[in-house]
Design a protein that fits this description.
The chain contains two helices and eight strands; from the N terminus they run H-E-E-E-E-E-H-E-E-E. The protein is mainly β and 163 residues long. The protein has one domain: Ganglioside M2 Activator Protein, Chain: A (Distorted Sandwich). Strand 4 and strand 5 form a beta hairpin. The longest helix is centred in the N-terminal third of the chain and has 15 residues.
Length: 163
C-alpha cells in the first residue's frame, strides 16, 4: 500500500499542478503541462503552481508547490487517478487506475483533516520518481468528487519521463 500511495502522490503532483510552464504568461520554456478539464470552477482553483524538474527522470527527486483556492467546505470526497503509457505507439498500458478517499489525500498533501473550510492553502511536496516508470510519454488524469458526486476539480496532463 505504501508504494501505491507514492505512485498516487506522484500522479496527483503531476496532474493537479498548473505549472508556470504551461501557457501562462510565465511560460518561458513552452513545456507541455496540466490542462483543466473541470466542468465548473465554482468549487476550487489551482493558482501559482510550479513543477520541477521537467522532464522527469526515474530515481530522481521532483518538487511540486503551489496554492489551491477552495470555495466550499470539503466534508468528504473521492479522487480518481489514471495514469497510462503509450507503449511504442501500439498499446496503452495503465499504471494507475485508483479511487481514493479525498480526505486521506488532503492529510498527505495539505496536512489538514476534513472538513476543510473554504480558503487559500499552500502546498509543497517533494518525492522521488519511481523507477517503475519507463522512459516515454505518460497521460494522466485526476478527477475529484464531493460526497454528492459533484466534480470539484479535474486535471489532465501529458508528461515525459526521460532515462
Amino acid at each position: 500500500m505504501g508504494r501505491l500511495v507514492e505512485y498516487i502522490l506522484l500522479l496527483l503532483s503531476v496532474v493537479l499542478v498548473v505549472s508556470t510552464l504551461t501557457g501562462s504568461t510565465n511560460n518561458y520554456y513552452n513545456e507541455p503541462g496540466p490542462k483543466d478539464c473541470s466542468v465548473t470552477k465554482k468549487f476550487s482553483k489551482l493558482i501559482n503552481d510550479s513543477f520541477t524538474p521537467y522532464p522527469l527522470i526515474p530515481g530522481k527527486n521532483y518538487n511540486v508547490q503551489g496554492t489551491i483556492l477552495i470555495n466550499k467546505t470539503v466534508e468528504w470526497g473521492t479522487i480518481h487517478f489514471t495514469l497510462a503509457h503509450n507503449f511504442r505507439n501500439t498499446v496503452n498500458i495503465t499504471f494507475v487506475n485508483e479511487k481514493l478517499n479525498l480526505c486521506d489525500f488532503i492529510v498527505d498533501l495539505l496536512k489538514l483533516h476534513c472538513p476543510v473550510p473554504p480558503g487559500i492553502y499552500q502546498f509543497n511536496y517533494t518525492d522521488t520518481v519511481p523507477k517503475l516508470f519507463w522512459p516515454g510519454r505518460y497521460y494522466g488524469k485526476a478527477a475529484v468528487y464531493n460526497e454528492e458526486g459533484e466534480e470539484l476539480m479535474c486535471q489532465t496532463i501529458d508528461v515525459n519521463i526521460n532515462e
